[in-house]
């Protein structure tokens, strides 16, 4: 229904309406996904070892994403001289996986079911966490998708095997991923400072095909040097822990670690990976909005995801 003086429907400004991701259509029926990208919330944070709160990450990132939803003709980037995420890229929001409080296995199974539904529909899954343990069910869902290589942006290695009987907390996901025969390797960028993973975990990670670079090592290598370390032709699953960024720009997370990446460092890596590889899945985790009254952490997360999706589909169109 048109408002006063409207000739072409609703204006739908960012501060109006329901906060789906990017103000894109909501699809409640997981059997009826018809899109290029489907966004799934995974509001699970029982895997945290210290500060909880990432269960509110999906809600915060969705709300932040509406800041960038005032353009109906895509987003023009004058540096790249191209328009990203025009109407030809169909993005839907399929809501959240059902989380059962204190029940990790059921909650993870529900997240896995959501990712499988997206993959069955032929769409690119984008999962917003939640703590980093939600990556475990995401990677499980790829067991029939062929080989994948994981690009991890993170402060922490997350390669703990078992700690006090826990195998599926937020310190375990990359170890669980490396155990999968269809995961051909991991490139871990941003790993720094005191970590939750002990030396034997680093030794195991390297033995299982994990290439580990700190922020300082990434800066020393430079963009092209980093991209050259990712296997040519690999199909890439990208997992972004918001604590990979410096807490000076992303304080809203449970385990902040100073000395992290700045925005363009990560963005240029993601753009380079999109140019050289097929991106098959994305998760962005550990946004805990209550630790950041400015909301800039959630805005950063939304901006990274929207830009990365823009790069992915721009490159797909060029290849086609």
Taken as a percent bin, the fraction of beta residues is: 15-25%
Helix-strand string:
EHEEEHEHEHEHEHEHEH
Report mean pLDDT, rounded to a whole number. 94
Q: Within the CATH hierarchy, at the fold level, what is the topology?
A: Arginase, Chain A
CATH superfamily: Ureohydrolase domain
Poorly predicted ranges: none
Shape, principal axes of CA atoms: globular
The CATH architecture is 3-Layer(aba) Sandwich
> Total number of helical segments?
8
What's the gist of this structure?
This protein has 320 residues and is of the alpha/beta class. It has helices at 57-65, 104-120, 135-140, 173-178, 199-207, 215-228, 263-276, 296-319; strands at 37-42, 75-77, 82-84, 91-96, 124-129, 148-153, 183-189, 210-213, 235-241, 278-285.
How is the topology of this model organized?
Layout: E1 37-42, H1 57-65, E2 75-77, E3 82-84, E4 91-96, H2 104-120, E5 124-129, H3 135-140, E6 148-153, H4 173-178, E7 183-189, H5 199-207, E8 210-213, H6 215-228, E9 235-241, H7 263-276, E10 278-285, H8 296-319
Parallel strand pairs: 1-4, 1-5, 5-10, 6-7, 6-9, 7-8, 9-10
Antiparallel strand pairs: 2-3
Helix pairs in contact: 1-8, 6-7, 7-8
């Amino acid at each position: 229904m048109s408002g006063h003086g409207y000739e072409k429907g609703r204006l739908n400004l960012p501060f109006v309406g329901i906060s789906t991701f990017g103000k894109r259509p909501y699809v409640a029926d997981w059997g009826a996904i018809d899109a290029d990208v489907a966004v799934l919330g995974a509001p699970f944070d029982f895997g945290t070892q210290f500060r909880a709160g990432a269960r509110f990450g999906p809600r915060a990132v969705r709300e932040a994403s509406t800041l960038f939803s005032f353009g109906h003709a895509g987003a023009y980037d004058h540096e790249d001289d191209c328009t990203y995420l025009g109407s030809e890229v169909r993005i839907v929001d399929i809501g959240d996986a059902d989380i059962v409080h204190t029940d990790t296995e059921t909650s993870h199974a529900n997240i896995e079911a959501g990712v499988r539904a997206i993959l069955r529909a032929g769409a690119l899954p984008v999962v917003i966490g939640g703590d980093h343990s939600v990556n475990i069910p995401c990677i499980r869902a790829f067991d029939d998708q062929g080989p994948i290589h994981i690009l991890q942006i993170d402060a922490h290695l997350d390669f703990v095997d078992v700690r006090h009987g826990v195998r599926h907390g937020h310190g375990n996901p990359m170890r669980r991923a490396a155990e999968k025969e269809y995961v051909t390797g991991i490139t871990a960028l941003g790993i720094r400072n005191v970590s939750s993973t002990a030396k034997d975990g680093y030794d195991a990670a390297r033995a299982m095909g994990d290439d580990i670079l700190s922020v300082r090592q990434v800066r020393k290598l430079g963009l092209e040097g980093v991209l050259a370390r990712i296997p040519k032709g690999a199909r890439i699953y990208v997992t972004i822990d918001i604590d990979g960024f410096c807490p000076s720009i992303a304080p809203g997370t449970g385990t902040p670690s100073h000395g992290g990446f700045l925005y363009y460092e990560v963005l240029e890596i993601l753009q380079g990976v999109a140019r050289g590889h097929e991106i098959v899945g994305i998760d962005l985790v550990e946004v805990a909005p209550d630790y950041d009254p400015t909301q800039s952490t959630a805005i950063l997360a939304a901006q990274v995801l929207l830009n990365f999706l823009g790069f992915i589909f721009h490159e797909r169109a060029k290849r086609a």
